[in-house]
Every structure is written in structure tokens, then in C-alpha cells.
Design brief:
Layout lengths: L2 E2 L4 E2 L3 E14 L4 E4 L3 E5 L4 E17 L1 H8 L3 H4 L11 E2 L2 H18 L6 H21 L10 H20 L9 H8 L3 H12 L3 H17 L6 H7 L5 H12 L3 H8 L2
Antiparallel strand pairs: 1-6, 2-6, 3-4, 3-5, 3-6, 5-7
Length: 265
């Protein structure tokens, strides 16, 4: 100590940090926040950040993916936890009772992680869901966003439309990928306006949201052996299996076949 990340970095997962007893500094591209005892903060995938710690006695840091919670706890992440949609929010301070409650769940997750159980991931995913529900209850219950007017509604409706469309794709009730202009038309706004609102409020372009949801749906379908890779590629709107394979490998580092073999181990 002191310790700091040497440069800006972007993780490929969600992270939640609960500070029981520590001092430091947390920075995004737009703000810098002090970390002190009782601070809780989170970041979403591909968000630029820096961390600096002056002292650490007790801190809990959890990382997770949308796919993990969907697979092992059946949780629709953004529908259940809308505060995770935003690029960043001001870190919140918790009182002693809340800190004790949250830290107990973190300790349970750590204990289960060490176990050799066939249901370990399911237990961890459900404990993590419980933790996020507590966080939502204490800090973000009814949270809609930091801006005025109708922009938070546009973001939430976009996520809702995105979720519904990919459910239809996975169920075989839709065969075409919707584009930015299609999601804009659903809300009666210009696609440039939708692009701007989503980018400003979530830190990601609409195309990135679509790509991430496509990968999540593909992973879910690949874990079901009743579907061939060809069927999955067509179900997700790809004209050719080769297009699907290139897209999937670009975003995950695996071919669909390799991912399927890995997930079935």
C-alpha cells in the first residue's frame, strides 16, 4: 500500500465492491469518488475505471456476468436490477446494520466457492441474487435514472423490447434480428436520438447491447444439446453458420462448437 491500477482498464463483467474498512479512490472517465468505510459501488462491463487503495482491512469484491445469473438462477438481470443498466452511479454509504447484512452474504458466497458441490454455481448465483436484492432494497428501490424528462423511460423501454425480442428469437417465434431503427420505431423516436440516449445513459452503443444479448442467447441455446449449431445460427437471425461462428468467436474467444464442448464438461 498504497496500491493503484497502473492505467485505465475495462473489465468484461459486472463488479460490486463492498468496503467495510478501507480507504481509497474510485474513478470513472467523468467522476472521481472517495472510498471510505461503508462505501458500496459497482461497475458494468466495458466501463473505463481506475482504483487506488491507501489502506485495506476488509473489502468484498464480487464479479459476475449476466449469463451466469441467467443460467444458474434464472434471473433476467436488467429487468430485476435496473440500476445495473447505467454506466455508473455515485457510490452509496451504508450504515452498520446494512453492512453486516451484506457482508454475511459475501462470506457465504466465499464459503460455497470453496466447496466441491455439483450445485455450487446454483447456490452462488442465488446468494448473489439475494445480495443484489438487498442492495436494491437499501439503495436503489424505485431507481429509474439520474436524468430528467423521458430519457430513463426510453432506456428502460429499450431494454424491455430487447429482452422480449430475444425471448422470441430463442423460442423460434421470430427469425429476423431487429436493428437500431427497429427499436427506435417501437418508441416513436428517431434512431439517432435513441442512439444518443442509450450511449449517454448506459455508456454503450445500441449495437453493443444487441451484440451482448445475441451472445447471451447463443450461449443459452448452445448449452441445450437438442439444438444443432446450424439451427441456433438460423434461430438468431444469421443467414449462414459461418457468419454466426465468426461473430461468436469475436465476442467470446471460442467457436460455438468449442463453447458447447466446454460447457458440457
Amino acid at each position: 500500500m498504497p496500491y493503484g491500477t497502473p492505467m485505465w482498464f475495462r473489465a468484461n463483467c459486472f463488479s460490486l465492491t463492498l468496503t467495510i474498512d478501507a480507504l481509497g479512490c474510485y474513478s470513472t472517465k467523468t467522476n472521481t469518488f472517495a472510498i471510505k468505510p461503508g462505501t458500496l459501488f459497482f461497475s458494468r462491463p466495458n466501463m473505463h475505471r481506475q482504483l487506488e487503495w491507501q489502506n485495506i482491512t476488509e473489502v468484498y469484491h464480487l464479479t459476475f456476468s449476466e449469463h451466469f445469473l441467467a443460467k444458474y438462477a434464472g434471473v433476467a438481470l436488467f429487468k430485476t436490477f435496473p440500476f445495473l443498466i447505467l454506466e455508473s452511479v455515485v457510490p452509496r454509504l451504508a450504515d452498520t446494520e446494512v453492512l453486516t447484512d451484506l457482508s454475511k452474504i459475501c462470506l457465504q458466497i466465499g464459503q460455497v466457492q470453496k466447496e466441491n458441490s455439483h450445485f455450487k454455481n446454483n447456490i452462488i448465483a442465488n446468494l448473489l441474487t439475494r445480495l443484489l436484492l438487498r442492495v436494491k432494497q437499501h439503495f436503489w428501490d424505485g431507481y429509474t435514472g439520474p436524468v430528467k424528462d423521458k430519457e430513463p423511460d426510453i432506456v428502460m423501454q429499450f431494454i424491455k423490447n430487447l429482452e422480449q425480442h430475444y425471448q422470441q428469437l430463442q423460442q423460434g417465434k421470430a427469425t429476423l434480428q431487429l436493428r437500431v431503427k427497429d427499436y427506435a420505431a417501437m418508441q416513436g423516436v428517431h434512431e439517432n436520438y435513441l442512439y444518443t440516449v442509450i450511449k449517454e445513459q448506459t455508456g454503450k452503443m445500441v449495437s453493443h447491447w444487441i451484440a451482448e444479448k445475441t451472445i447471451l442467447a447463443a450461449q443459452s441455446l448452445l448449452e441445450d444439446p437438442s439444438f444443432t449449431i446450424k439451427e441456433i445460427s438460423y434461430r438468431l437471425g444469421f443467414a449462414y453458420v459461418s457468419y454466426f461462428t465468426t461473430f461468436f468467436k469475436k465476442h467470446t474467444g471460442f467457436t460455438p462448437k468449442d463453447f458447447r464442448n466446454k460447457s458440457n464438461v
